Amino acid sequence: MSTRVLVPLVLAAATATAWAHKPFFSDGTAVDAERALVVQDPVVSQVFYHEITTVAPRLWLAFDLKQNQEVYLQIGVPVLERLRDYRPSFALVGPGLPRAHLPFGVPAGMGARVSRTSRVRQPQFFHEPFTGTDSWILREVRTKIAQAGRYYAVAFAPSDKPGKLWLAIGTQEKWEPAEFAKLGEIGRKVRAFHEVGSDPKDAGGNTVAEPTNEKLVFSFDRLEDRSDWTVINDGVMGGLSRGQLTITDQGTALFSGEVSLRNNGGFSSVRSKTAAYDLGGFGGLTIRVRGDGKRYKLTAAVDTGADPVMYQVGFETAKDEWVERHLAFGDFVATYHGRRVDGAGTLDPSRIQSVGFPIADGQEGSFRLEVDWIKAEQRQ
Predict the structure, then answer these.
(1) Total H helices, total E strands in the chain
(2) C-alpha count within 13 angstroms, C-beta hemisphere, residue 62
(3) How confident is the model at residue 63, as a pLDDT?
(4) Half-sphere exposure (Cβ direction) of 103: Cα atoms closer than 13 Å
(5) Contact at 8 Å (CB) between 352 and 277?
(6) CA 20 to 30 Å from 320, out of 101, 206, 300, 366?
(7) 3-state secondary structure of 82
(8) First and final CA of the chain: distance in angstroms?
(9) Strands 124-128 and 133-144
(10) Per-residue pLDDT tens over the stretch 295-309
(11) How many CA atoms lie within 13 A of 247 on its CB side?
(12) How far is CA 349 from the centre of its chain?
């Protein structure tokens, strides 16, 4: 069997304690078991970048596992508009696994366990700060091996549709001092794969600005988005409502509590820290939320005062279901303490300093709103 080993290259994040996978770059020749790339230690966290083409429709990795050893695999794609609906799959191939229908052959005596992503509607967003690249994570699987031997991980796309993907293996972080010298080169390669930092040219060879379709405002799996959110309840006016914001193990923000109408109360809210979000040119905010069936609002403040005018727009939730809601900036209405402010003008997204989620409108009782992310988009 003719197999090759890639030289591992390390990618570090922005701080000394935050690390990412060791990255490898496929040269397009690992298209079957005979030419698979050998992973020397499948326990170590590594990621393999591959572009699916007509001559390189699959990526094969080979590694040895012991009996009862667990193997971890994860697949994703770069955040590129043309890959928004791209759904590659991967298969774990090896001895003792069941027979499976695959669009390619496997070594004699081996079966496979296939992990498909065709039903993934909203992949997990991941931002890698060192390279400034974004990915959509489609699926991750942990499998305990019953029989020792040579195994393979194969990444492929339905009908061999061209596109880009990455396949990660292992969870343990391990680096050698000599690998640090290669960080600059690897960062450039990772950015090139994600098509970040390129300068498009017009017909005359001049650099032109490439339009940005969306911008991530908050994603609570990013540490920088977890802090400095403030809970504001009607206790500031004598009310008895209570609310809290917690970060779940899944990297989402959970706004929950109970609204009371006693003592002229009736609202609870959370608000982000004051910052310049630079949302000029976008048409609105899209949120991914899971609620309790109640109606909530999204607010936006354009000044930094302690008690500012709030632009707000309402949205519905589906009980216990994740939904996306696009809220156009033109639909936000200026309010002060819940009352409409005439003459305030329309919301200028370039001036937004803070966003928030209140529940009010006489909705008494317990509430629960889970927020996955907030994005600015160009659509109106």
Answers:
(1) 1, 25
(2) 19
(3) 97
(4) 15
(5) yes
(6) 300
(7) helix
(8) 56
(9) antiparallel
(10) 999 999 998 776 788
(11) 14
(12) 23
* Domains, the chain, ordered by start: 4-193 (2.60.120.380), 215-377 (2.60.120.430)
Q: Which two tokens stand for residue 72?
A: 């971890």
Task: Report yes or no: 369 and 291 within 8 Å, Cβ to Cβ.
Answer: yes
Q: H/E element holding 48?
A: strand 46-52
16: left (phi over 0), alpha (psi -120 to 50) or beta: alpha
Burial class of 185 by CB neighbour count within 10 A (0 to 12, 13 to 18, 19+)? exposed
pLDDT given for residue 121 in this prediction: 85
Q: Which residue has the tokens 């700060």?
A: 129
Which residue in the block uniquely carries the two structure tokens 């570090």? 12
Query: For position 224, what pLDDT does the model report?
Result: 64
d(C-alpha 303, C-alpha 82), whole Å: 37
The beta strands (E) that lie in 195-278 are given as 214-219, 230-233, 242-247, 253-259, 268-271
* Cβ atoms of residues 309 and 318 within 8 Å: no
Q: Which residues in the chain land under pLDDT 70?
A: 1-20, 174-184, 197-212, 222-226, 306, 379-380
The two tokens of residue 288 are 């991914």
